[in-house]
Amino acid sequence: MSDPASGPDDSDASARPASKGERTRQRIIDTALDMFAERGYDKTTMRAIAAEAGVSVGNAYYYFKSKEHLIQGFYEQATIRHAELTPTMLEGKETLAERIEAALLAWLDIAGPYHAFAGQFFRNAADPSSPLSPFSEDSGESRDRDIALYQEVLEGSKTKVPKDMADILPEMLWLHQMVVVLYWVYDASPGQEKSRELARRTAPLAARVVALSRLKILRPLVKQGEELVRDFLITRKPE
Amino acid sequence: MSDPASGPDDSDASARPASKGERTRQRIIDTALDMFAERGYDKTTMRAIAAEAGVSVGNAYYYFKSKEHLIQGFYEQATIRHAELTPTMLEGKETLAERIEAALLAWLDIAGPYHAFAGQFFRNAADPSSPLSPFSEDSGESRDRDIALYQEVLEGSKTKVPKDMADILPEMLWLHQMVVVLYWVYDASPGQEKSRELARRTAPLAARVVALSRLKILRPLVKQGEELVRDFLITRKPE
DNA sequence: GCTCAGAGTTGAACATGTTCAACTCTGAGC
DNA sequence: GCTCAGAGTTGAACATGTTCAACTCTGAGC
């Protein structure tokens, strides 16, 4: 049962001299992502990846349960870099709109090189039965990292947030990002410029919605929306 | 170039004695959907479908470019039945909230039996490079049918709709449906009861948003949201 | 009724993801 | 330094989606 292929050693980038296994694993995923970016997911066979990485096909399967699981490496790597890159871009930005925009653009910067195989990537994201979906248990770590980032986006801003919404706002902003990412996946414009435009135009809107949420007339609406998110979204990951 | 496998004869259910080809095609898709619903998408091999339908594997590929294209048959069939079923369910319903809810629940009723392989279905929906995505050219007919349905939902209601929003509202309600469908795909609750609850709770919210959109304070927000949808969503399908 | 272009059909061959029994290497424990 | 459990690795065998050259059938046009 013990799910051998989920990765013999999944641990963080601690010290540890990186066992032989860890190095092999890293070599396989690096090779795979390079090849995906270069010639696309479908065009890259497991045999080719194995050959290029200097291992046998079977060995690749020792570390990654399936070809699709290699994609999770992309998601993981992307959120890690997103978490690294965003704080720098947030510096000096004080309005919520600017900060949201910065976080979104940072993501687009990072994901850019992989746009070519993004479709294939999202194929998995949309399949709940596979453990690769951003909503799945397996992706929990990556997703949480990204949600935490939006908490930072919020906390550093001057915008006052209604107390009872503070908890779920990061989740909602993360959802907003998911929408942008979804658009990006479909974006055929050169350099995915339209996605960047979407981020730029959508960020102040999101910020304004947050600000307006304090209005009396909107109170019941906001309240219900909040409950909705709480009941239907957060429930999903029991701790 | 002429894309032979997209279906030698795609025409509507007109009279016409149904050529041999049409019948074969129908037999294949019927068999496939049955088997998908029964044992799942992955577990159903093309060989099995062909055998069960009484044709050769190659013949199945004559009618459907790939296994995934069989899934488009599902989407098509679902929207056709949705368009048939909803009007009955709308009868006597006058408030916008009730009507939206009815349309959503109708969809859930229809899709219910296929929930088991919905994940696999959405895998395609999320891949823009494949022509199966609901946003793609190929799915245009099905999607438009569904959007038209929401126009009916709106028109039959008593709620007054701001003139400048009338055009895009059906699209927005369709997007709303997409969100519910997306949730449904991930829904692991027995009988997908949570999705129905989501539809029920979300319908009045959507209706209220439509109603509130006339408020002066919200005017700029609504205006921008509308432009956003127009610029980023409707652009997609040039005519 | 005959002809023939093209629709319809076949199944073996191919491409590629995945599994598995067998082997080799590593490093903790003595 | 020896031992051995278990990590790491192999490649042939397998499963299944897809292609394609060859064949057969159909029905419009004469």
UniProtKB/TrEMBL annotation, chains A, B:
<dbReference type="InterPro" id="IPR041673">
    <property type="entry name" value="TetR_C_23"/>
</dbReference>
<keyword id="KW-0238">DNA-binding</keyword>
<dbReference type="InterPro" id="IPR023772">
    <property type="entry name" value="DNA-bd_HTH_TetR-type_CS"/>
</dbReference>
<dbReference type="InterPro" id="IPR001647">
    <property type="entry name" value="HTH_TetR"/>
</dbReference>
<dbReference type="InterPro" id="IPR009057">
    <property type="entry name" value="Homeodomain-like_sf"/>
</dbReference>
<feature type="compositionally biased region" description="Low complexity">
    <location>
        <begin position="1"/>
        <end position="18"/>
    </location>
</feature>
<feature type="DNA-binding region" description="H-T-H motif">
    <location>
        <begin position="45"/>
        <end position="64"/>
    </location>
</feature>
<feature type="domain" description="HTH tetR-type">
    <location>
        <begin position="22"/>
        <end position="82"/>
    </location>
</feature>
<dbReference type="Pfam" id="PF00440">
    <property type="entry name" value="TetR_N"/>
</dbReference>
<dbReference type="InterPro" id="IPR050109">
    <property type="entry name" value="HTH-type_TetR-like_transc_reg"/>
</dbReference>
<dbReference type="InterPro" id="IPR036271">
    <property type="entry name" value="Tet_transcr_reg_TetR-rel_C_sf"/>
</dbReference>
<dbReference type="Pfam" id="PF17931">
    <property type="entry name" value="TetR_C_23"/>
</dbReference>
<protein>
    <submittedName>
        <fullName>TetR family transcriptional regulator</fullName>
    </submittedName>
</protein>
<feature type="region of interest" description="Disordered">
    <location>
        <begin position="1"/>
        <end position="24"/>
    </location>
</feature>
